[in-house]
Design goal:
The protein has about 375 residues and is an alpha/beta fold. The chain has 11 helices and 13 strands. The protein has a 7-stranded mixed sheet with strand order 1-7-6-5-4-2-3, with helices on both faces. It catalyses: L-serine + H(+) = ethanolamine + CO2.
């Protein structure tokens, strides 16, 4: 039995009863969101409304952006990196080792040269290593994936430092393209006062975010926004649609924009700010409870992803829907994850550990290499 989904970044705190009747319609957003096609059952006006909402959030004028509602977060990365490749056909893709697997999938699909950059123990891109690798390929333009929250550790790459590193390495703005993968934290960061800003006022090319994560859409979807000046390099007119094709997929889920528009307008910027602050507060609470119980745990400053030692019981992992990698697991604290739920989780984990490690020969793993020695509570570091 699944008790709760706490290891994956899904906000299950939603109620779309008011939109229930929409399932009777086949809503398909073909072609360009800004150009009406021949197919009449669409939700383009809601799609454009959602895009305008995010354009304001990421500070780009209506006349300067182009975007669409994707079918998932991966499609946003595929599109952002494709735009970068079309702008710089001979460019090299740089991505930290802790980038989402879709980034490396994009490199394979587009047959791009791809350089993996080392990470700090936090999971953030190591700009010293980035600089070394940039200088080794100075003759080719750079296409960079910047993580606004890595998949496993929730680390936020320092966008300003990435731009500074590019400039120090001799890359002027006409020789690099930055795609920001903001799958989860792309929507959260604007509401954290001390967080570095993700904005098109900086020299970035595109930003993508998932709609089924923090927003809480019941179907996978995402938002992808890029600069209008870039989109013309990969768009073409399609007579069959009576529209322009600049997306990855042909058909797009026409229900998703309505669900997104409904939630964005119901909660508003203030509603999301409140939820972000609650998630960060609850994440600190979880990290402190784990550490107080003698369990290795780490939480990045701008994150709601708590990393800790991997439970050795797979039934426990499945019961709580934990995401694991090597010796670590994580909980992503979302608006639907309450203090009570976190207490239940920690209490059960502490109880289970007392049986897993009752034999002195079996000890909790050392995860200092993953989360830093200061966060590790193994026999060596406690």
């Amino acid at each position: 039995m699944v008790l709760s989904v706490i290891g994956y970044p899904y906000n299950l705190d939603f109620d779309y009863g008011a939109l229930g009747q929409l399932q009777h319609f086949s809503i398909n957003n073909l072609g360009d969101p800004f150009i009406e096609s021949n197919y009449g059952v669409h939700s383009r006006q809601f799609e454009v409304g959602v895009l305008d909402w995010f354009a304001r959030l990421w500070e780009i004028e209506k006349s300067e952006y182009w975007g669409y509602i994707t079918n998932c977060g991966t499609e946003g990365n595929l599109h952002g990196i494709l735009v970068g490749r079309e702008v710089f056909p001979d460019g090299i893709l740089y991505a930290s080792r802790e980038s989402h697997y879709s980034v490396f999938k994009a490199a394979r699909m587009y047959r791009m040269g791809c350089v993996k950059v080392d990470c700090l123990v936090s999971g953030e891109i190591d700009c010293a290593d980035f600089k070394v690798k940039l200088l080794a390929n100075k003759d080719k333009p750079a296409i960079i994936n910047v993580n606004i929250g890595t998949t496993v550790k929730g680390a936020v790459d320092d966008l300003d430092l990435v731009i500074q590193t590019l400039e120090e390495s001799g890359f002027s703005q006409d020789r690099f393209y930055i795609h920001c993968d903001g799958a989860l934290f792309g929507l959260m960061m604007p509401f954290v006062k001390r967080a570095p800003k993700v904005t098109f006022k900086k020299p970035i090319g595109s930003v993508s975010v998932s709609g089924h994560k923090f927003v809480g859409c019941p179907m996978p979807c995402g938002v992808q926004i890029t600069r209008m000046e870039h989109i013309n390099v990969l768009s073409s007119n399609v007579e069959y649609l009576a529209s322009r094709d600049a997306t990855i997929m042909g058909s797009r889920n026409g229900h998703a924009p309505i669900f997104l528009w409904y939630t964005l307008n119901r909660k508003g910027y203030k509603g999301f700010q409140k939820e972000v602050q609650k998630c960060l507060r609850n994440a600190y609470y979880l990290k402190d409870r784990l550490r107080d119980a003698g369990i290795s745990a780490m939480l990045n400053e701008l994150s709601s992803t708590v990393v800790f030692e991997r439970p050795i019981d797979e039934d426990f992992v499945r019961r709580w829907q934990l995401a694991c990698q090597g010796n670590i697991a994580h909980v992503v604290v979302m608006p639907s994850v309450t203090i009570e739920k976190l207490d239940d989780f920690v209490n059960e984990l502490v109880e289970k550990r007392s049986t897993w490690y009752q034999d002195e020969k079996v000890r909790p793993p050392c995860i200092a290499a993953d989360i830093g020695s200061q966060n590790c509570s193994c026999d060596l570091h406690k």
